[in-house]
Amino acid sequence: MATSTRSSKRQKTGADTAAETDDSMAYKLIYWPGIPGRGEHIRLAFEATGTPYVDVSNKTDAGVNAVMAQISEKNIGDDNNPPPLAPPILQHGDTLLSQTPNILAYLGPKLGLVPDVAEDSAGMYHVNALALTALDGLSNEPHDVHHPIASGAYYEEQKEEALKKAADYRAVRLPKFLGYFERVLSGPASGGGEWLYGGKMTYADLVLFQTLDGVTYAFPKCVDKLRSRGKYEKVFAHYERVKALDKIQSYLASDRRLKYSMGIYRHYPELDDE
Amino acid sequence: MATSTRSSKRQKTGADTAAETDDSMAYKLIYWPGIPGRGEHIRLAFEATGTPYVDVSNKTDAGVNAVMAQISEKNIGDDNNPPPLAPPILQHGDTLLSQTPNILAYLGPKLGLVPDVAEDSAGMYHVNALALTALDGLSNEPHDVHHPIASGAYYEEQKEEALKKAADYRAVRLPKFLGYFERVLSGPASGGGEWLYGGKMTYADLVLFQTLDGVTYAFPKCVDKLRSRGKYEKVFAHYERVKALDKIQSYLASDRRLKYSMGIYRHYPELDDE
Question: What ipTM did this prediction achieve?
């Protein structure tokens, strides 16, 4: 049974920066190399806060084997950690965590990407809900658009069904989620409409930015049309606001930002508007 | 911006039981009436711990209107709370939270359904990851089996595609997730294999129980076949272990336990094994 209390004792202080560059407590992201994918949400949390991290599969010799060892059907985990089903996986000291929104929930308080619990005890849960909702509608669903029948089969084998699902996604689902986040940004809990919650940037803002960026890559004509309707002005202004942050700008211009290709977000022109 | 610190100050004490029966701080579940659905995970957390709660749509005059008011496209939330996209919604004092795994993360420490953070600072995140994974593979995917193209259209309009997705689910996805939880229960972090994590029941155990129960309702022949393979003995023993808990037994026999019908888990014989 896990008994480490290390992470609960850690507070973000000046000394922390040094501790994090010490290899044993460095944040290590284990994710498929070469694509942004779900790992991108974790990268953005680090990049937006200037937090050092090791992108294991892209930047060390371990490469894809770092992922394969974790998700092997022979892996039953260790004394502290259940095995993960899939990447992204965060390694932090003796702790290994999987599931994108879970890793973000863990990092949120450590990186200052959720409201301070002493000031707003429910804040981190509101942020978690907003991130989960963006991941549902703007990451999981876009994935299922090109893989509606079997995630383990080729797109070409389910293209006919993908065409149908894409039509529903563009006409119904995507507008629904954009409309939802427009309402969130219009509501008083956003604290003014610049950020999703509490008047400050949280990881939910980064997730909304990244998912909308991916959706725009996958369905550029559809997003263009929706943008021109003028019904989602706050959402698109929010997207530009995140993109214009100094640290995000630098990151997007760096070689650490990987190109979309055959991951969650895929650009098949036949699945987009005409 | 939300500034309430009420919930962080609350500790589970004897006095708490009284506080929770006081209407203002009672736990209120807002979910579609008449079906177990995703709301069932919240009910089970309360039922397994003997925690009083109000099942608003089923047990008060508000009925379905309690849900409709929350998810109205005119709702922009209030000073403390962003609007929810969908139920289940938990109301606790001034706090309104949506997203099933988020509500469970909020309730976990309050109901004693996650490890004590002082003893195991990462424990609650491991529990969250396990719950998210069960919800992904044993709740969201089974839903998508009968609605592979458009969640807003009828099953009959997408039956052809559902037949294909069901075949993949039964042959590939369901065995993958059962195999994963068998490994979790085989691993040292489970603390002996009776529970998923840390040798004690957590809300992840309740989620795995409920999702496997729903999958068994939807695909009885397939689950029978998989069970008879003997490869998932720990998973099925875990299911029986949760089901045999005194409070769960009483709950399942009560009229508070709703019958499956046309929700997430649907029994269409043509989607099951022959």
Answer: 0.92
